[in-house]
Amino acid sequence: MVRGRIAGAPISWGVCEVEGWGLQLPRERVLGEMRQVGLTATEFGPEGWLPGEPEARAAALRAYGLEAVGGFLPVVLHDADTDPAAAFDEFAETCLAAGAGVVVLAAATGVNGYDLRPELSDEQWATLCENLDRLHDRAQARGLLAVLHPHVGTMVEGAEDVETVLTRSRIALCVDTGHLMAAGVDPVALTKAHTSRVAHVHLKDVDARLADDVHEGRTPFSDAVRAGLFRPLGQGDVDVAGLVGLLEQHGYAGWYVLEQDVMLDGAPQGEGPLVDVRASLAYLEEVAS
Known about the structure:
Layout: E1 6-7, H1 27-37, E2 41-43, H2 54-62, E3 67-75, H3 85-98, E4 102-107, H4 122-141, E5 145-148, H5 159-168, E6 172-176, H6 177-182, H7 187-193, E7 198-203, E8 205-206, H8 208-215, H9 221-226, E9 230-231, H10 240-249, E10 256-258, H11 274-287
Parallel strand pairs: 1-10, 2-3, 3-4, 4-5, 5-6, 6-7, 7-10
Antiparallel strand pairs: 8-9
């Protein structure tokens, strides 16, 4: 049943790890509105937004009746002089303490933001894939699931990057419909080609024109987000219904995380981001019924 596998994410309320992203709403409002709209689970959000101590983090979510799914962990994977294991282990222990099961990895560039990224050498690609396998094994040993999130402005972004990782590592895949489309990748086609590797899903709809501007380098990612790159489900150009149907037909049993990245320039008027979250939830429940 899909309804029991739908989760929220603080980024749908503009809460993000990137410095200068926009107004960061307090967790009391965001978690309260998650429950108000009917969500029963969430990813953690950026470091520092929830309490850092694992038991306190779990308690903060339980206070709003929310199950912990896991969360987003950007780590540098391509640098032979940087070992991601310590950061991964700390995050994994937090997941275990909160009853969460998923570590959503991103191959960070090592610089703030998602507007620029360097090119990797063959040696750096080898290091990245070796680190992914190491983290996959460390997660599995703890009973956790590690997935790689292709993400605009990280070292794994577009189709060639994803194929390299899927060919050269054992890591499972987080399909993020918005970031893939903004990188020039059809998320439904990618999922169809690699269904067995998909273990986690971030659902967002997309303005295809703005996504093309990002992919072609005409608009920085952050500017496109501010302009409305990501839309509520059913109000953009991603075949969300087709994607969900494909996954369910192939026995997908993971989470669908509603994750519409937004930037808030000031205090929201009226219900604010809750309006879009409610629309996305209603659409997903309709197409998955």
